[in-house]
Amino acid sequence: MTPFRTLCAGLAGALAAALSLVTLTSAGHAGGPSEPDRFLLRFTDAYLVHEPGRGNPQIVTEGNVLSYGQDWEIVQMRDFLYHLRQRNWQGFYWKVNTSRREVYRVEGGSFGNLGGSDELIESISVDPVGNPEDPTRFFLRFSDAYLVYVPASGTLQITASGNVLSYGGDWSVTQDEPWIYEMSQDVWQGFHWKVNTAREIAYRVTDETEPCLTDEELAMGVDVVGGGSATLAYGCVYSAVERPEGEEYPQTNPLADVAAEHVVGKDEFTATAPAAMVRVSALAPDASSALSVSPALSLYGEYDLFLPAGTAGDVVFQITDAASGATLHRSGREPLRNGENLRHLLVPAETAGSGSIPFPDEEDTGVFTRVGLVELADIDPQGFAEFPGAPERLRDAPFGGSLRMFGAFTRNFYPETGAGDHCYKVRITEPGGTTSYLDDPLNKRRYVVDSDGTVTSTSEFLGPMTIGSVDDCYRLTPLSSDPESDDPAGSIAVFWSFPDLLAHWHTGLRSGQHTVSLELYETGTGSRVRLVENDNLDIELYLDNRPITLNFDTLDVVRGRGTMETDLLAERCAMARLVGNRELEIDFTAHHPTGFMSAYRLAARSNSGVEVWREGDSYGAPAWSGARPPAFEGRAASAAAFTKGSADFTAGPCAYVFDLWAAARTTNGYSRINRAHTQLFYFIEP
Length: 686
Description:
Elements: E1 11-12, E2 38-42, E3 47-50, E4 58-61, E5 64-67, E6 72-76, E7 81-86, E8 92-97, E9 102-107, E10 117-120, E11 124-129, E12 137-142, E13 146-150, E14 155-160, E15 163-166, E16 171-177, E17 180-185, E18 192-196, E19 201-205, H1 211-214, E20 216-217, E21 221-225, E22 231-240, E23 263-264, E24 271-274, E25 278-283, E26 290-293, E27 302-307, E28 314-321, E29 327-335, E30 343-346, H2 349-352, E31 366-371, E32 374-375, E33 402-409, E34 422-429, E35 435-437, E36 442-450, E37 455-463, E38 465-467, E39 470-475, E40 491-496, E41 501-506, E42 512-522, E43 528-529, E44 538-543, E45 549-559, E46 563-564, E47 569-570, E48 575-577, E49 582-591, E50 597-606, E51 611-618, E52 634-635, E53 642-644, E54 654-664, E55 675-685
Parallel strand pairs: 22-30, 23-30, 48-55
Antiparallel strand pairs: 1-22, 2-13, 2-21, 3-4, 3-12, 4-5, 6-7, 7-8, 8-9, 9-10, 11-12, 13-14, 14-15, 16-17, 17-18, 18-19, 19-20, 22-24, 22-27, 25-26, 25-28, 28-29, 31-32, 31-33, 33-41, 34-35, 34-39, 34-42, 36-37, 36-40, 38-39, 42-43, 42-44, 45-46, 45-49, 47-48, 49-52, 49-53, 50-51, 50-54, ...
């Protein structure tokens, strides 16, 4: 992953002589800004691009499409002359002359006709590709384009040269905090924008789970109107490890883009992943009182601190364990340096001096191993089952239905008998970044063997439930085969079904890429156990639970060139005489709405089992990149009907079954789960 440029930045605030101290009695974003009246994203490279004869224009900035032009109209007047307008415009339109490389605002004219009063728009430049007299495509490059959003009304507009380019009907905006907004054009897949109005920065987000590593700052400017003010400190908290003697520094690391003097803690080359389950505090210079305290950083180390407005001078940063309150790190006095990147490193106790962070033991970790019978090695990074060696039509398979998820933790966490001291949760992160914990029940069979050879089995509920001080947690299956104290007298051994089954997830109607993560907790303290990160602690699963549409649309006898003669088909008796030039016209739908069809077929068989013809197609597993494989939707309702004549029914006069079948590639890890099948029976007289 490529580190972003400035997300984990330093401290923003005014420098002054005096430092006003405010003691906080509880954690929170005290003094944080309120919701702004509005904010503007000022684009640095926005443009409209149109390719003649290829549909609607697109409006783009920083490689992201802002509008797919569904609400635009374009008329080509000459090889070099075009009329353009947004459908909501009244009384004017744009005229583009690619030969002169100019754009005009036209009033008093008729769209699609010559005439009217022209006014040159100097803030738009025209960039034709190929011959300017007849370009293969052209760009309108805007020097003053921006997006404006009003939180109170939810109004979004994209504007350039004083004209609205889009009214935002195909955009979605959610507000995480009064100063944090998640924004997405509805067609975007795998990324969205995040706007922090307190920092006045916008980011492109590709992984909600690792903002400190993957968020990329966008070049656009952010202007905020209203919302109050507060001195802001923000950044990320990282773990650091001691470099073994003689080992070279890694070639890449999360802090490679930050100067060493802007990192508080051990040198930046030892940094590992962001640290979680801590709090960050800004203290007065003498550390006697807190100016601001962050909430617990339950995910990935990113924090915002809002100090009282006008705070200036030096502060001391303190990082504490969110569960125990133990001090892990305390910096010296740090000046509030405007715009510098300041990040915090937590180092092991033996090298940390006054602060430390409890690092996981070498064997403290966990893994997912498989989903059903699909090993994680056979699931690609986007979350599709690949089924090596299987026919192409079964590959690139999304998951769906009820998923049995298997895995394990290192042995020291498992109890020999009983509930033990640890339990686990399964966190689900949805495509939009919303997280929740799995609450589907997990049951296993427990087999108790008696000394007389009798085996008794019971269904045992393993969660989610409250275990110790942890809510919504799953019990770890005991390792030992020894009976427990409350087992019947004479019990000699205990066995569990599926000892490595961690979850039974009923995915319901979910679709899209989901991240599934394991979390381990101490049941006594309720604190989360820090596990050694590995490739199988979090897995991507692409879900699709959309049903197949399968039906016969028409089945009629026609005479020559498609002339319908419905009286030739005896509907009640389902008989068809294909004499002369009469043919059987057949149309059917076998369609998967999200393009995950595996195969479909329509076969005609005589009552003796002879297949006389077949129509169909299947997925070809082409090479692909991006968030998902190419769509194969099957046969849509709009497909043209086809005909079969007497020569196609080689079994002669006979009863025939028309067998229509389709299957999606969706799997539960054991088999395909999304199938459809229907039949019609006819007597055909060729």
